[in-house]
Fold these 2 entries.
Entry 1:
Amino acid sequence: MPPGPSKLASESTTTNLAQSKIVNNARSKSTLPTLIIKPANEEIKTSAMLKTALEGKIKLKDIQVEVLSCRPIQGNGIVAKTKTPEMLEKLKTTFMNDLTLRDKCQVYIPKPRVPHIIIFDIPPQDGDQAAHENNFILQLKESNELTDQEIKVVFKKKGRGSLQNWILAMQPKNYQEIKDKKRLRCGFNSFRFKEFLEPLRCFGCYRFGNLKRNCRETKPTCTKCTANHDPKGCTKPHPICRNCVLYNKSTNLKVRADHMSNSNLCPMYLREIEFIVKHTIYG
């Protein structure tokens, strides 16, 4: 029996409150210098293996670098945060100068992200899509008295019926002008919108960091358990989240895994949102 409207509303409110708390906490923290390290091949199978390999090659005390935190990320990688930007550069240079590590790892500093918004239920138009997008953005700027700084359409998602939801990237100054509004004017129309903080997630294997079209999994992954089968035929009495199980195995921590893999209250999902917020420039 499907959940009633009151239960769905309650779940939606809980999700919004959880995400709001994560976002506010992330914005209140200063972002430490960050280095992302990922395996360059399939020889390294887990984040823990990668960390062990790095610790065997790099002695942080010898290069006078303090790593304040190191956590696993999707793709068997890790995120390392250093005390100062100078230490970050020193750590990156050490990687680049070691031929063995260069063959095993990809190392990069994440680029700052500008704010993104999602505008709901925009009517589609036939013809030149680039011209349609440019005209929409021009009207958006004029109607909301925004600066002439770049606003671009990143991608579009299906909305209600034949309508579309557009994801736009904009400079921090323009975002600050609109962030407290409930609707955006655009010519004679107005549209609902909110900040877009959706992590990249595969709806085949339900891991973060890749899309279904690029997924290496050949069989569907169940959203209710960790097995490779269609979720419609799952006989497990209680859900278990694949991402949280993998995280617990790689870190020896114990986050709750008693939820569906596609739950918006999943600790790993909320962690990904926190990561996005921390690396977004708001002004």
Entry 2:
Amino acid sequence: MEQHSKSAYKAEAEVRDAHDEQLMDEALMDTFPASDPITPMCFD
């Protein structure tokens, strides 16, 4: 029983992370015009 709830919680967390990433992607698309080339981020 405990094992099942652990895996269910893990799956739920993964879904939440994926949703957050999707929201972030959408926010970035709103911030930058689609015509701009996407520059890789490098912090040197």
